[in-house]
From TrEMBL:
<protein>
    <recommendedName>
        <fullName>Flavin-dependent monooxygenase</fullName>
        <ecNumber>1.14.13.-</ecNumber>
    </recommendedName>
</protein>
<feature type="binding site">
    <location>
        <position position="51"/>
    </location>
    <ligand>
        <name>FAD</name>
    </ligand>
</feature>
<feature type="binding site">
    <location>
        <position position="304"/>
    </location>
    <ligand>
        <name>FAD</name>
    </ligand>
</feature>
<feature type="region of interest" description="Disordered">
    <location>
        <begin position="36"/>
        <end position="56"/>
    </location>
</feature>
<keyword id="KW-0274">FAD</keyword>
<keyword id="KW-0521">NADP</keyword>
<dbReference type="InterPro" id="IPR043683">
    <property type="entry name" value="TetX_monooxygenase"/>
</dbReference>
<comment type="function">
    <text>An FAD-requiring monooxygenase active on some tetracycline antibiotic derivatives, which leads to their inactivation. Hydroxylates carbon 11a of tetracycline and some analogs.</text>
</comment>
<dbReference type="InterPro" id="IPR036188">
    <property type="entry name" value="FAD/NAD-bd_sf"/>
</dbReference>
<keyword id="KW-0963">Cytoplasm</keyword>
<feature type="binding site">
    <location>
        <position position="44"/>
    </location>
    <ligand>
        <name>NADPH</name>
    </ligand>
</feature>
<keyword id="KW-0503">Monooxygenase</keyword>
<keyword id="KW-0547">Nucleotide-binding</keyword>
<feature type="domain" description="FAD-binding">
    <location>
        <begin position="298"/>
        <end position="332"/>
    </location>
</feature>
<comment type="similarity">
    <text>Belongs to the aromatic-ring hydroxylase family. TetX subfamily.</text>
</comment>
<dbReference type="InterPro" id="IPR002938">
    <property type="entry name" value="FAD-bd"/>
</dbReference>
<keyword id="KW-0285">Flavoprotein</keyword>
């Protein structure tokens, strides 16, 4: 196979990991095309806020030459972490000093981070409305990619950055995501400081958690006075169907959730009752730990496609970006793609195993009968 600079590289998925990989490759004169199923960058909301860790997310941004632009967008005050009891009392509150934003894990909205990465790429790098249906192996590790719009393309290296339900992973592994036993119901508060001052005050400037007896609330401060809230439950994956609940019926969802959280403080129940954005059911899935695959020429994975884990790792997007940066660097440093991918996977497997094991332990502790005491002890130890 020819060297990286002359090879056809296809990245499936325009998330943070795939985009940072493409950016670093372009900086070194290596062309990569990103294929994404969304119709455009504005086709859907990108989700909540992320904290960028110095040794992973920020390191990848530095490698991509984008750290300063990130720091100009980041919210250092978003590092605040607050634990609240089911009675609404604040049990633990860490407010970080307003120092250099690189000192710690400053927050940034997912949409802002994605726009930063997209704007750093050459025009035409991302091909929108390119939903991969399957990849057809060819000779010498190359693959023909088939998209839902009927188009095809060929690549010498296919990088699966296509998330939890990755199509590329099907060529490398028979592992499938498994339900963790915990579901989040997402909702939100717009203009929170003005319209919901009590909930805004309870949330603070960063993340507020209230966890007890297999239930809980997580509220995150986003930019522009928006608070994104998650109502968490250890429950059946099809809990809503068993309750005869239509998830599109916001009033019915509200009624069921309020009943489910009987006994919690009225302040916390406001995250259920006072929402103006409706409810989104988000069961949490994870890949088996460890998840590895036999090295296969012309294919590899990064991010959730490689190591989907619960959000209680705090590492999802950070690991994806570190994956993307390390893979790009390996492709820059190794003229043979196969050698580059082997070097990258040697880094990927041990660190993703450790992070995924920690995430599994984290969600077990956060949604347990004694989760309030366990979470308080964890915060006191680590903060």
């Amino acid at each position: 196979m020819t060297g990286s600079t002359a090879s056809r590289i296809a990245i499936i998925g325009a998330g943070p990991g795939g985009l940072i990989c493409a950016r670093i490759l372009q900086q070194h004169g290596i062309t990569a095309t990103v294929h994404d199923q969304d119709a455009s960058r504005a086709a859907r909301n990108q989700g909540g806020t992320l904290d960028m860790h110095p040794d992973s997310g920020q390191s990848a941004l530095r490698e991509a030459g984008l750290l300063q632009e990130f720091l100009e967008l980041a919210r250092p005050e978003g590092r605040q972490m607050r634990l609240v009891g089911r009675d609404g009392r604040v049990l633990f509150d860490v407010v970080p000093p307003q120092a250099d934003t690189e000192d710690g894990n400053p927050e940034i909205d997912r949409g802002q981070l994605r726009d930063l990465l997209l704007d750093s790429l050459k025009p035409g790098t991302v091909r929108w409305s390119h939903k991969l249906t399957h990849a057809e192996p060819l000779a010498d590790g190359a693959h023909r990619l088939h998209f839902a719009d009927g188009t095809t393309t060929e690549a010498d290296l296919v990088i699966g950055a296509d998330g939890a339900w990755s199509k590329v992973r099907l060529l490398l592994s028979d592992a499938t995501p498994v339900y963790t036993g915990v579901t989040f119901v997402e909702t939100g508060l717009d203009d929170a400081d003005v319209r919901h001052p009590a909930l805004a005050a309870l949330t603070g400037d960063g993340t507020m958690m209230a966890l007890d007896n297999n239930q809980g609330f997580v509220a995150q401060r986003n930019s522009n006075q928006h608070i994104r809230a998650y109502i968490g439950m250890r429950t059946d994956e099809d809990w809503h169907r068993k309750a005869g609940l239509d998830l599109a019926d916001a009033a019915a969802v509200r009624e069921v959730l309020l009943k489910e959280f009987t006994g919690w403080s009225g302040d916390l129940l406001g995250f259920i009752a006072d929402t103006g954005t409706g409810y989104i059911n988000r069961p949490l899935y994870a890949l088996p730990v460890p998840h590895t695959w036999q090295h296969t020429p012309g294919l590899t994975l990064l991010g959730d496609a490689a190591h989907l884990m619960s959000p209680f790792s705090g590492m999802g997007a950070n690991l994806a970006m570190l994956d993307g940066a390390d893979l790009a660097r390996a492709l820059v440093d190794n003229p043979a793609i196969d050698d580059a991918v082997r070097a990258y996977e040697d880094l990927l497997f041990p660190r993703s195993r450790e992070a995924a094991a920690g995430a599994a332990e984290g969600i077990e502790g956060a949604f347990a009968p004694d989760s309030a005491a366990r979470t308080l002890a964890h915060m006191a130890q680590h903060h």
